[in-house]
C-alpha cells in the first residue's frame, strides 16, 4: 500500500507542478514580483495537502516566533530532502535563494526563478562566487528580503555526520544580519534520491536567532553546536513518535547512539 501511495503521490506532485506553472504563468509574469510570490507559496501548500491526503504525512512548525518580524535575515536550515527545498516558503515573507545557475536554464522553471530575483552562481568559479553572492544578497536584503540557505550545502542523509561549510560564516560577517537556524528530519518520510514516501508526523523546529556582531569563527562554532544538538534531540523525538518509519543503516546507527547516550545520562526524553 505504501508503494502504491508513493507512486500516486509522485505522479500528483509533478502534475501539480506542471499544471500550476502553465495555468498561473500569465498572472505570475504580469504581476508585481511580491504579489507573484503567491503562486509558488500556494503550490507549496497544495503539496502539503497532497502529501497528507495521499500518503498520510503531516508536520508542524515550532518556533515561528523566532523569525524576525521585519528586515533581512539568514534562514539557515538542515537539508535532507526535496521537501525542505520548498516546504517553508509560505512562512518566509520574501525569500531569496542562492542556487546553481544551471537551474535557470530549465524551460519555464528558469523563468520562474529569474522573476523572483534568485541568485544564480557558477560553482566552478570558486573565489569569485562568494563575492558575487554577497554583493547580490546584500542588495536583496537592503530591500527587506530573507536569505534561505542550507549550511551544509547539499542534501545530507539522516544520521550523516555534519558537514557545515564556512561560507555561511562569511555571509554572517559581511551581511551583518541575524541568522535563524532551523532543524527538521523530513528525510525520514521523503528520503533523498528515493521514490518512496512514508506516512507519519514530524516537526520543523526554528531556533532562536544568532544576532550579528560575533567573530565569524565563534558564530560558526555556535551555529554548528546549536543546530546539531537540536537536530539530535529532534531526531530521537521523531523516531520515537514514528516507530513505523523504516530507518536506513546510517540512521539506525545514529539513533542507537543517541538512545545509548540518553540512557547513560538517565534521560528518557531528548
From TrEMBL:
Q: In which pathway does it act?
A: Lipid metabolism
Coiled-coil annotation reads none
Q: Which residues form the Phospholipid/glycerol acyltransferase domain?
A: 73-187
Q: Name one GO molecular function term.
A: acyltransferase activity
Q: Write out the transmembrane intervals.
A: 6-30
Q: Looking at the record's lineage, which domain of life comes first?
A: Bacteria
Q: Does the keyword Acyltransferase apply?
A: yes
Q: Which UniProt keywords apply?
A: Acyltransferase, Membrane, Transferase, Transmembrane, Transmembrane helix
Mind telling me which PANTHER family this protein's record contains?
1-ACYL-SN-GLYCEROL-3-PHOSPHATE ACYLTRANSFERASE
Question: What is the protein named?
Answer: 1-acyl-sn-glycerol-3-phosphate acyltransferase
Amino acid at each position: 500500500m505504501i508503494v502504491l501511495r508513493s507512486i500516486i503521490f509522485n505522479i500528483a506532485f509533478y502534475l501539480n507542478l506542471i499544471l500550476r506553472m502553465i495555468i498561473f504563468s500569465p498572472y505570475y509574469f504580469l504581476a508585481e514580483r511580491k504579489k507573484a510570490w503567491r503562486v509558488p507559496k500556494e503550490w507549496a501548500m497544495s503539496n502539503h495537502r497532497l502529501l497528507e491526503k495521499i500518503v498520510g504525512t503531516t508536520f508542524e512548525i515550532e518556533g515561528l516566533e523566532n523569525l524576525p518580524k521585519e528586515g533581512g535575515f539568514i534562514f539557515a536550515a538542515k537539508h535532507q530532502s526535496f521537501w525542505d527545498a520548498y516546504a517553508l516558503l509560505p512562512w518566509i515573507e520574501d525569500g531569496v535563494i542562492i542556487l546553481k545557475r544551471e537551474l535557470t536554464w530549465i524551460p519555464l522553471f528558469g523563468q520562474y526563478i529569474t522573476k523572483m530575483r534568485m541568485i544564480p552562481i557558477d560553482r566552478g568559479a570558486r573565489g569569485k562566487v562568494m563575492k558575487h553572492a554577497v554583493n547580490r544578497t546584500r542588495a536583496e536584503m537592503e530591500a527587506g528580503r530573507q536569505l534561505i540557505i542550507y549550511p551544509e550545502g547539499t542534501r545530507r542523509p539522516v544520521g550523516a555526520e555534519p558537514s557545515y561549510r564556512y561560507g555561511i560564516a562569511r555571509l554572517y560577517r559581511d551581511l551583518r544580519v541575524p541568522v535563524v537556524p532551523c532543524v527538521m528530519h523530513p528525510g525520514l518520510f521523503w528520503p533523498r534520491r528515493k521514490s518512496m514516501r512514508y506516512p507519519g508526523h514530524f516537526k520543523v523546529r526554528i531556533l532562536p536567532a544568532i544576532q550579528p556582531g560575533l567573530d565569524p569563527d565563534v558564530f560558526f562554532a555556535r551555529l554548528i553546536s546549536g543546530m546539531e544538538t537540536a537536530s539530535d534531540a529532534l531526531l530521537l523525538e521523531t523516531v520515537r513518535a514514528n516507530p513505523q518509519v523504516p530507518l536506513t543503516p546510517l540512521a539506525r546507527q545514529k539513533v542507537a547512539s543517541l538512545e545509548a547516550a540518553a540512557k547513560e545520562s538517565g534521560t528518557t526524553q531528548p
